[in-house]
Amino acid sequence: MEEEANMELRRGPWTVEEDLLLMNYIANHGEGRWNLLAEAAGLKRTGKSCRLRWLNYLRPDVRRGNITLEEQLKILELHYRWGNRWSKIAQHLPGRTDNEIKNYWRTRVQKQAKQLQCDVNSKLFKDTMRYIWIPRLMERIQAQRGGGTASLEALPQLCGAADDGVSQSYTQDENSSTAASSDSMGTSQMSMVSDFTAETSSTNCYGMKVQENSQIGHGGYQECLGSPYGYADHGHGLGSNQGGQLEGNMWLGSSEGSTVWSDEDIWLLQQHCLSYGL
DNA sequence: AAACACTTCAACCGCCGCTAG
DNA sequence: GCTAGCGGCGGTTGAAGTGTT
Questions:
Q1: Taking the mean position of all CA atoms in its chain, how far away is CA A158?
Q2: Nearest protein residue to C5's C1' (by CA)?
Q3: Inter-axis angle of helices A165-175 and A69-82, to 10 degrees?
Q4: What is the spatial distance between Cα A94 and Cα A196, in angstroms, rounded to a whole number?
Q5: Which amino acid residue lies closest to nucleotide B6, measuring CA to C1'?
Q6: Confidence at residue A14, expressed as pLDDT on a 0 to 100 scale
Q7: Where does the pLDDT of residue A50 fall: very low under 50, low under 70, confident under 90, or very high at 90 and above?
Q8: Nucleotide of closest approach to A31 (CA, C1')
Q9: Which of A3, A57, A86, A278 could form a disulfide with A98 if both were Cys (CB 3.0 to 4.6 A apart)?
Q10: What is the pLDDT of residue A123?
Q11: pLDDT digits (tens, 9 = 90+) for A119-131
């Protein structure tokens, strides 16, 4: 009997009709009670599937498009503090879903760790993020804004927060009643980041109002995803590396041939790797 | 133009914690 | 106190899209 019911359940990609059914139902009755909702809306989907579709895709305030530099910075910082607690991290990135952040981390950040041949949770990688990636991101953000000094001035604080404050702020956060209220260390220190992100409103694929990134200084963020410099390195960067350690590393070079890492940067990273015996 | 490799991300799965009965 | 049902979460998968040879 149960099997029979499962046989009827649809799986896989959602159709436009299903999306409309779900949106209309939620517009009229609200969310929650997902199993009942699925049935009442006439959807041959599990409640879980409906919830996921709504939260990750159809929700009006879901923000689509590329992760901005500011968001990347925030993700790095929050992941440093909380680890793979995607939903918690997502709470600090309005309009972004845990799924999206998780995907970003897996496809972009973990890839970098792999190329450095270190574990994404290792000290090496965390230090690399902290001392190299995050500062570079901040420089890029500053550059995008066309100068200004606020972010760079705040850098030591940010790095400090990613270190000494970790356990303390985490504990405070855990004990607070809501995630949003946690941020004696969190959003207060990160506010300089979130302040940069302007938002405009638009409509989603079905004409519902949604939020949309308004890239500061725009400039086609597509090309800079996943890298503090935003260049896809096709074998340039640090040059050939038999070990494959840094070859093709998106952080390290430009597809246009101009290496954005200074010799000093490269030396620092190499020394860092050497100190870990890599 | 075609085949292959790689990347992205929507969706599913399984586990866990909470809660109502 | 026990249990079933549900929602939420993190991990994983695979189809589709994109890039490269």
A1: 17
A2: A35
A3: 90
A4: 13
A5: A107
A6: 92
A7: very high
A8: C7
A9: A86
A10: 74
A11: 777 777 777 777 7
Q: What is the pLDDT of residue A185?
A: 32
Q: What six digits make up the tokens of A248?
A: 């093709």
Domains of chain A, CATH where assigned: 2-58 (1.10.10.60), 69-275 (no CATH)
Rounded CA–C1' distance between A30 and B7, in angstroms: 36
Report the alpha-carbon distance of residue A32 to residue A24 in Å, rounded.
Answer: 14
Cα Rg of chain A, angstroms: 21
What's the mean per-residue pLDDT of chain A? 62
